Amino acid sequence: MLLANRNNFFDEMFQDPFFTRPFENTSAQIMKTDIHEKDGNYMIEMELPGYAKEDISADLKDGYLSISAAKDQTNEEKDDKGNCIRRERYTGNCTRKFYVGKDVTKEDIKAAFSDGVLKLIVPKETPQAVETATRIAIE
C-alpha cells in the first residue's frame, strides 16, 4: 500500500505546471489574452487562473502597458504525528507587454479582475494632428 502511494506521489509531482509546460514563451501560455475592439477602445481580457487580485500589477511606461502576475506558494502536508509527508513550493512570475501609444495615460485605462480574468479597457491612441504641407514662397 505504501508503494502505491509513493508512485502516486511522483505521478502528481510530474503533473505540476513546472514539468508540463514548455519553457519557451511561458508568459504567453499562462497569460492567455484576447483583444477586442469596441466603441473606440480596446478590450483586453487576460486569463490568470489561480492568481489573486493582489498578485497582479499593471503599469504604463513609455506607451507600453505591462501586466505582471507573481505567486509565491507553499503547501505542506503532515501525518497524524506531525511529521512532514510532503512539502511543495512554487514561485513564479509572468509578464506581458502591449504597446498602447504614448498619448494614453494611466487615468485612461480601466481595469477589473474577477473569476480569474483580468479585463482592461484601453482607448485607442488618438491620432496626432497631421501638419498639412504649406508652400513656401520663393522670392
Question: How would you describe this protein?
Answer:
With 139 residues, the protein is an alpha+beta fold. The protein contains three helices and seven strands; from the N terminus they run H-H-H-E-E-E-E-E-E-E. It has helices spanning 2-13, 17-20, 26-30, and strands at 33-38, 41-47, 56-61, 64-78, 84-99, 110-114, 117-123. The protein has a four-stranded antiparallel sheet with strand order 1-2-7-6, with no helix packed on it. Strand 1 and strand 2 form a beta hairpin. The chain is elongated and about 65 Å long. Residues 1-6 and 21-25 have low confidence and may be disordered.
Rg from alpha-carbon coordinates: 24 Å
How many β-strands, per DSSP? 7
Shape: elongated
Helical percent range? 10-25%
Q: Tally the helices.
A: 3
How would you classify the helix and strand content by structural class? alpha+beta
- What is the residue-mean pLDDT, rounded to a whole number? 76
Please describe the biggest sheet, giving its number of strands, its sense, and whether it closes into a barrel.
4 strands, antiparallel
**Major β-sheet strand ordering:** 1-2-7-6
What is the straight-line distance between the termini?
101 Å
Task: Tell me the series of helices and strands, N- to C-terminal.
Answer: HHHEEEEEEE
Low-confidence runs of at least 5 consecutive residues:
1-6, 21-25
